[in-house]
Amino acid sequence: MEQKFKNMTALLADDDVDMITQMTLHLQQIGFKVITAESQKDTEEIIETTKPDIAILDLMMDNRDSGFILSYKMKKKYPDVPVIILTSVTSDTGMMFGVNTDEEKKWIKADAYLEKGLRPEQLEMEISQLLGK
Amino acid sequence: MATLNVLIVDDEPGIRSGIVRILNHFTVDFPFLDKEFDFNLIEVETGERAVELLDAGEVDIVLLDNKLPGMDGIKVLEYLTKKEYDCSVMMITSYASLDLAVKATNNGAYNFIPKPFTPTELKTSMEWITKNLYLRRMTKKMNTEGKQIRFQFLSVLSHELKSPINAIEGYLNIMKDGQLGENISDYKVMIDRSLERIRGMRSLIMDMLDLTRLESGKKSRDVQKVDLVELMRISKDTMSPMAIQKNVKINIDAQPEHILYTADRQEVEIIFNNLVSNAVKYNKDFGEVNCELRDEGACIRISVSDTGIGLSEEEISKLFQEFVRIKNDKTKAISGSGLGLSILKKIVDEVYHGTVSVESVPDKGSTFTVMLPKV
Fold it and tell me: What's the gap in Å between the CA of B150 and the closest CA on chain A?
């Protein structure tokens, strides 16, 4: 695969070690250097000192809304870094969030909201769009 | 037709009359209900007045503005959460911030609708909130009627079952695409992890069956004199394959040699298997598990100690809740359903009126003690 994101850093937060393994693999294959965190707290600590080029956050970690809180904190500190919230919550609960309309964007401070289990190509496409590549 | 009382709390008369116009002849019905709902609309201007009406009861849905002259929306929300009033709240506000959203959601607001809203948006929100309220009340009614339908439980359960499926599916897709190479050995770690997740799922299903049996089939209990020491030996045998893999030694120390107790054999097995399997699973390699059984007159004491990773006080406080798994670096590779200890506690507390307690030193080990009173 072409490494179009060479020399870029992705922050990946998920409390499921297997999701971390798989996502890390996918992200590395398209060139990213990956920093991982397995809890909201760890992620907060990383955000304090490190500015990634993109952040991919699981919604439910220590708290049910960890992803939203982290997304908010990311945007406050690094407004220009795109944030993707990744979860399987829609199919579990029937709750729907989106970030497509302006109104929704007021509530959820993320740039994309993706369902878990997406294929690596889809992931690459979403990231390309957000990073303008 | 059922009528729900809707309290509209907003200091702007224009917003209130707008809402009234939209909802006046609006009805909600669902394919799965034989009921149709309409709305009796009550308008108030302030948070203080809203609280008075809430105290008087008979409010089903609150449409709540946050920015009010005196007591603001969040304060009203906090108040009715504290009083545990059975109503659903939708925040209507133009001051949309995530801080407010998180605060309001934590205080039990069901939904938000940002101002200005269209009639369709308000109606859609009302449909959701009505459905949510109806289902919540049904659940409550069924629970008090003793029907053990637990929506909350089921929704967490589906999350717990889906996570391993997602993980395994992801690994299989990586293998299918041959992302790490052509040899099966390139995927050894992924295969091992998939098997581990399957084991976790199996144990969740087994635990679920225990729980279902506990909650529904009380008549299938078979209570008689059982020898607790013999049952502990069976648990030891059941767990020994896992113990051998980790080189953990299981010791049983019983005084007297046989302890007879009136109980359902399967329930005691669930208790013992949970205690011993946790002690093995969260142990160090080459560690020990010591099972102590003592007849103390009024009670039987069963203590199971391990030489494992131990627990902090904060972790202990969460330990017996359903689906709580203590997550840290030391436990992340260990699979479990997060149900075992909550089932154990349920049996000990509710069926045998006993107690479970934990003592633990991080990195040294934990001791779980079950006290079973003699009847």
Answer: 14
